[in-house]
Design the sequence.
């Protein structure tokens, strides 16, 4: 089994469950180092299957390591995974949820997600001009006629966003059952959701399973945001790691399950500013669990409203030319968030503080290499 970059990539797994899912991944993951971020009760013992090389961090470890900055790492939300990004010493990160398993391609071959993500990260991105044959660097593809030769070199790739067979990453209103939807409408009134949410017949899809395998990888165009899901995600820590903060979610926060979305919006505007790319598409994982849409809606509810203002904020912001590295961009972005979103809710000022504390924590654990 191929294990490319085994010494340059860490696998980060947030968990409140057990890690038996690793048995199915063993052929692909065993050569790699795992960073397990145990959420919830730190006294609970998490069993890691034999034979894996790993480090495990619980809440007590996060408090011990980060001290007065630990508050910026979420508790009781998968957002805690970003602590693993911070403590890693490797160039690449792959993060996966513990209810994601090995998917099969149309030929029935098990998919080696790391092999595909690494191919995505090691080949250039093309955000400035869309290639209609998708990723031109894949076997059997190329740039199509009319694609400017001056743009064919592409730019470095910072993130590789994989997808999911079976349970798609839908939001709660889309995932809810009809009866649940009726109950929610009754509980919260007929105007419970922003006008932008289509009528329920277009939404409630509790039984919808993604069975469509699309054999494509594409670059997200410059200036376009995308809903980055943390379930099956790889990135280059050197190019974008310092912006992969998954925000303030979970216990004590007014919002949850917008952790990866927040990181996706922040990283995309910074990638566009710094001239690095984001890809989405292959590889697929098999997502096995649908979390409870009722619980999810309670966590997502404010986000469903707020994102109608957050998205235009990110679409219209410009980072200054003096921000020439990820940390500078992220600190500038934190102040833009404070000014530009603070009117929505005091949460955003606290989130801006969290973004600053994240960079302080990042610098604490990733000091610049001593100049040779
Ligand atoms: O409080 C928590 C809850 C969960 N986790 C770990 O996070 C991973 C995702 O959890 P789960 O599979 O239950 O949630 P989903 O609805 O499928 O996840 C999607 O939405 C939330 C996130 O954005 C996630 O990335 C999305 O895929 C899993 O490993 C849990 O063990 C946690 O650490 N703390
Ligand atoms: Mn899941």
Sequence:
């Amino acid at each position: 089994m191929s294990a490319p970059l085994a010494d340059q990539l860490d696998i980060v797994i947030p968990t409140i469950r057990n890690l038996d899912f690793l048995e199915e991944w063993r052929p692909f993951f065993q050569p790699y180092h795992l960073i397990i971020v145990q959420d919830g009760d730190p006294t609970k013992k998490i069993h890691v299957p034999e034979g894996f090389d790993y480090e495990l961090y619980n809440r007590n470890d996060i408090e011990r390591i980060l001290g007065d900055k630990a508050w910026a790492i979420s508790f009781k939300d998968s957002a805690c995974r970003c602590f693993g990004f911070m403590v890693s010493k490797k160039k690449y990160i792959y993060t996966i949820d513990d209810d994601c398993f090995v998917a099969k391609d149309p030929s029935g071959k098990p998919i080696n997600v790391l092999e595909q993500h690494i191919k995505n990260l090691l080949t250039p991105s093309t955000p400035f001009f869309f290639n209609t044959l998708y990723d031109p660097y894949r076997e059997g593809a190329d740039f199509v006629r009319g694609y400017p030769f001056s743009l064919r070199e592409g730019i470095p790739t910072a993130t590789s966003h994989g997808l999911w067979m079976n349970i798609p990453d839908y939001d709660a209103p889309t995932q809810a059952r009809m009866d649940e939807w009726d109950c929610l409408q009754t509980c919260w009134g007929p105007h419970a959701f922003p006008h932008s949410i289509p009528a329920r017949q277009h939404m409630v899809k509790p039984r919808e399973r993604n069975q469509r395998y699309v054999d494509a990888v594409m670059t997200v165009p410059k200036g376009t945001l995308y809903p980055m899901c943390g379930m099956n995600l790889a990135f280059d820590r050197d190019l974008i790691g310092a912006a992969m903060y998954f925000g303030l979610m979970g216990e004590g926060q007014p919002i949850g399950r917008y952790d990866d979305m927040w990181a996706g919006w922040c990283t995309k505007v910074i990638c566009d500013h710094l001239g690095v790319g984001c890809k989405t598409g292959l590889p697929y994982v098999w997502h096995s669990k649908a979390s409870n849409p009722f619980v999810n809606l309670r966590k997502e509810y404010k986000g469903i409203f707020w994102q109608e203002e957050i998205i235009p904020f990110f679409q219209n912001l410009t980072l200054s030319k003096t921000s020439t590295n990820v940390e500078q961009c992220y600190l500038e972005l934190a102040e833009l968030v404070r000014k530009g979103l603070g009117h929505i809710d005091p949460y955003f000022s606290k989130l801006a503080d969290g973004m600053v504390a994240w960079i302080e924590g990042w610098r604490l654990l990733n000091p610049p290499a001593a100049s040779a």
